Amino acid sequence: MSIYDIEVKKANGETYSLDKYKGRPMLIANTASQCGLRGQYDDLEALHQEYKDQDLVVLGFPSNQFNQEPGSGQDAEEACRINHGVTFDIHDIIDVNGENAHPLFKHLRKEADGLMGDKIKWNFTKFLVDRDGNVISRVAPTTSPLKMKKDIEKVL
Description:
Layout: E1 7-9, E2 15-17, E3 26-31, H1 40-51, E4 57-62, H2 73-84, E5 89-90, H3 103-111, E6 126-129, E7 135-139, H4 149-155
Parallel strand pairs: 3-4, 4-5
Antiparallel strand pairs: 1-2, 3-6, 6-7
């Protein structure tokens, strides 16, 4: 299965296939608006603004698996827009671990293990996907997305 075969749902309920981004690099993060690392929304938005004209797609996937995103996807999206000026796509609430993990995060975890195996350790785990749909890096929750610039520039 390719990443492009996976369907996702935006916070507004619109469902689409990641095939929409075929040929474009993607920076994908599991997020939470009440997480202590939520300042990374600002860094993700900065990368979105800097590289969107070079085809980088930034995608946020809120999860309440760490009890820091208690509302709906629309609540998460609103918090991101109001508190961090986020303009990249925020999706509906998903699970990133376990039996009910979203197929996207099952795929990402399988393709790029972390320090604790394939399990997502915390909010703001970040994955960089190249133009061909290959997961080329996985970045720890506590690492700023801005430290990914060199890798991002390689896939652009």
